[in-house]
Specification:
The chain is α/β, with parallel strands linked by helices and 307 residues long. It has a domain of 211 residues: Vaccinia Virus protein VP39 (Rossmann fold, 3-Layer(aba) Sandwich), CATH 3.40.50.150. The chain is built from eleven helices and seven strands. It has a seven-stranded mixed β-sheet, with helices on both faces. Helix 1 packs parallel to helix 4, helix 2 packs across helix 3 and helix 7 packs across helix 10. The longest helix has 22 residues. Bound molecules: S-adenosylmethionine (SAM). The site of S-adenosylmethionine has 22 residues, from helix 1.
Length: 307
C-alpha cells in the first residue's frame, strides 16, 4: 500500500538517501568530469538555451548539485565563472568539494533546501539543476525562490527530469533485463549479486529501492514543467525531451548488472555499455529528438528567462 509522506519526511529521507549514496555516486552513474562530461553538460544547455549560452554566465547557482556534475563541468569548460552549489545533503556537498579540490576548481557550497534559498534577491545570472526537481515536495515555492534569486534577464535551466510517459516506457527494458539476467550472468561467468547487508553495518536503513520510491516524488509532462515556470513569472519558456534509445539501452544494461556481483562484471562489458550509451545519445540527439514529441523521451529539459 502507498504510504503518504509529509514534505518534512520527504526532505529527511532525501538527505539520508543521498548522504549514503554520495561516496559511490560518481561510479554508479558513470559521472565524468573530463571532456565527455563537459560535452554532455554543454550539449544539454545548448539544446534549450541556444544562442543564450554563447556569452556564458558570470554567477551561477546550482540546486541539488550532488557531486558537482553540472557546475564543475561548466566551470572547467569556462561557461560559468563563479559557481555556488547547494544541496540538502551534506554528504553530497563533501563529495562535491573533494571533486573540486582534485580538479583545482574554486566553488562555493551551501547546504540548502531548494524551497528556502539563503541568498539575496537577484544574486545570480543563471539557476541550474540536473535531476533535482522530481525530489522537491513544493515546486511552486521552489520556482518562486529560483525567480527571486535570479537577476532580471537571467535564466533557469533544469535537465534530467523524468517524463511521465518516458518513465512508463522505461519499464519495458527494465522487465526485459530481469528476464535476460540469468543467461547474461552465465555468458559473463558472473555470480549473482550478494544479498544486501543488514544490521548496524548497513549503509542505509531499509532497502535502497524502497527509499528510492520515497525520494522520487514526481514525473512530469512537458506541460507541467512549462506551467510551473510560467506561474512563477518566467517568460520565454522552452521544454525539450532527450534520450530514448540511449535510455532503454542504459536501463537494460543497468538491470542486468544489478543482478551480478559487481566485482565479477567484466571491464570489457562496462566499456561496451558506456560507449554504446554515448553512441545512442548521439543517435537520439540527431535523429529522434528533432522529430518526436518531447513527452515520449525519458528526460525533460526546461529553460526560461526572468523578464
Ligand atoms: C538525483 S541527485 C542529482 C545530483 C546531481 N545534480 C547530478 O545530476 O549528479 C538529486 C540531488 O538533489 C538533492 N536534493 C533532494 N532534495 C532536495 C531539496 N529539497 N533541496 C535541495 N536539494 C535536494 C539530493 O540530495 C541530490 O544530491
Amino acid at each position: 500500500m502507498e504510504v503518504l509522506r509529509t514534505a518534512a519526511e520527504i526532505r529527511e529521507v532525501n538527505t539520508r538517501y543521498h548522504d549514503a549514496a554520495a561516496a559511490s555516486y560518481d561510479s554508479k552513474w558513470s559521472i565524468d568530469f573530463g571532456q565527455v562530461g563537459q560535452a554532455q553538460v554543454i550539449g544539454k544547455l545548448r539544446k534549450v538555451l541556444g544562442s543564450a549560452l554563447e556569452r556564458g554566465f558570470d554567477r551561477s547557482l546550482e540546486i541539488g548539485a550532488g557531486t558537482g556534475y553540472f557546475s564543475l563541468n561548466l566551470l572547467r569548460a569556462g561557461i560559468v565563472r563563479h559557481a555556488t552549489c547547494t544541496d540538502i545533503s551534506p554528504g553530497m556537498l563533501r563529495a562535491l568539494l573533494a571533486n573540486a579540490e582534485r580538479m583545482r576548481l574554486d566553488v562555493k557550497t551551501a547546504r540548502a533546501d531548494a524551497e528556502t534559498l539563503p541568498f539575496a534577491e537577484q544574486s545570480f545570472d543563471v539557476v541550474l539543476g540536473h535531476a533535482v526537481l522530481h525530489h522537491l515536495p513544493d515546486l511552486e515555492r521552489a520556482f518562486g525562490e529560483f525567480h527571486r534569486v535570479l537577476r532580471p534577464g537571467g535564466w533557469i535551466v533544469f535537465a534530467g527530469e523524468p517524463s511521465r510517459v518516458g518513465d512508463r516506457l522505461a519499464s519495458i527494458p527494465k522487465r526485459a533485463a530481469v528476464a535476460a539476467a540469468p543467461m547474461w550472468r552465465w555468458a559473463m561467468r558472473a555470480a549473482p549479486s550478494p544479498p544486501p547487508p543488514t544490521g548496524p553495518s548497513a549503509s542505509m536503513n531499509g532497502d535502497e529501492a524502497g527509499l528510492e520510491r520515497v525520494v522520487d516524488i514526481h514525473a512530469f509532462s512537458p506541460g507541467d514543467l512549462a506551467r510551473f515556470a510560467s506561474a512563477a513569472g518566467f517568460a520565454d519558456v522552452r521544454v525539450r525531451g532527450e534520450e530514448l534509445l540511449a535510455n532503454w539501452f542504459g536501463w537494460f544494461n543497468r538491470g542486468l548488472e544489478s543482478t551480478a556481483d559487481p566485482a565479477e562484471v567484466p571491464m570489457a562489458w562496462r566499456q561496451y555499455a558506456f560507449r554504446g550509451y554515448l553512441l545512442l545519445q548521439r543517435v537520439d540527439e540527431r535523429l529522434l529528438e528533432p522529430r518526436l514529441p518531447a513527452a515520449i523521451f525519458y528526460n525533460l529539459l526546461l529553460a526560461a528567462r526572468r523578464p
